Amino acid sequence: MKKKVSVLELSEALGVTVVTIRRDLNELEDGNYLKREHGYAIVVDEDDIESRMLSNFSSKQALAEFAAGLVEKNECIFIEGGSTNALLARLLTKRDDITIITMSTYISNLLKDSPCNVILLGGMLQKHSEAMVGPITRASLQLVHFSKAFIGIDGYTPETGFTGRDMMRTDTLNCVLQKSPYNIILTDSSKFGRIFPNALSPMELIHQVITDHELPAIHKDALSTKVELTLI
């Protein structure tokens, strides 16, 4: 599959104007289906953290800044992989009074020069997402304790609850949710309204959802009766 194509190529192939192509590409970029770069459209690899970080960056940064303010002195927390959680980890790199546990090699690399304590869970490495998963990861979780878990999600509807694209990563996160005293979903509103095959644990294990003000009313109403909902 061709992952990069120019606006001119698309215009000629589809028989429409460059203006029309640019307008349609803008809509696709808003929906996180691709990204734009110097007259080209590039397919977004949804497992690639750097690609996802570029989408809705300002919103994700604001969410990460709020979440960073929730991390208390001498606290041990879990930070899952994903773009917003990676931004959260970046904001915590100067903290010397916390311990961060993660399943993300990307996040552990961000923290390699940080004065904070870092625990990277073992397991099988998913190379594209840079996440550790599988039975060894679940076993590693039983050896550590943490007071808060910051979790990213791929989808949510009132009917399905929170869902994930990848079975093994979702399975690992379900172990995290079962273990943590306080679970926080940290994600921008673009994930809401999507459905993926792998269900996260029951809503009773989710304590707080932090997202942006673009959250559609239908999801706002459904969540506000079940969790602490924070809109940034």
What features would you describe in this structure?
A hairpin with a 3-residue loop joins β10 (about 155) and β11 (about 160-165). The protein has helices spanning about 5-15, 20-30, 50-55, 55-70, 85-90, 105-110, 135-140, 165-180, 215-225; strands at about 5, 35, 40-45, 75-80, 100, 115-120, 125, 130-135, 150, 155, 160-165, 185, 200, 210, 230. α1 (about 5-15) crosses α2 (about 20-30), α4 crosses α5 and α7 runs parallel beside α8. The strands form four sheets. The protein has a seven-stranded parallel beta sheet, with helices on both faces. The protein is globular and about 60 Å long. It contains nine helices and 15 strands. It has about 230 residues and is of the alpha/beta class.
What's a quick, concise take on this entry?
With 232 residues, the chain is of the alpha/beta class.
The 3D shape can be described as: globular
In terms of DSSP E residues, the strand content is: 15-25%
Characterize the biggest β-sheet.
7 strands, parallel
Helix count, DSSP H or I runs of 4 or more residues: 9
Number of strands: 15
- Residue share in helices? 25-40%
Question: H/E series, N to C?
Answer: EHHEEHHEHEHEEEHEEEHEEEHE
Average pLDDT taken over every residue? 90
- Spans of at least 5 consecutive residues whose pLDDT stays below 50 are none
| Gyration radius, rounded | 19 Å
Cα distance, first to last residue?
38 Å
Main β-sheet, spatial strand arrangement: 6-5-4-9-12-14-15
Based on helices, strands and strand pairing, what is the structural class? alpha/beta
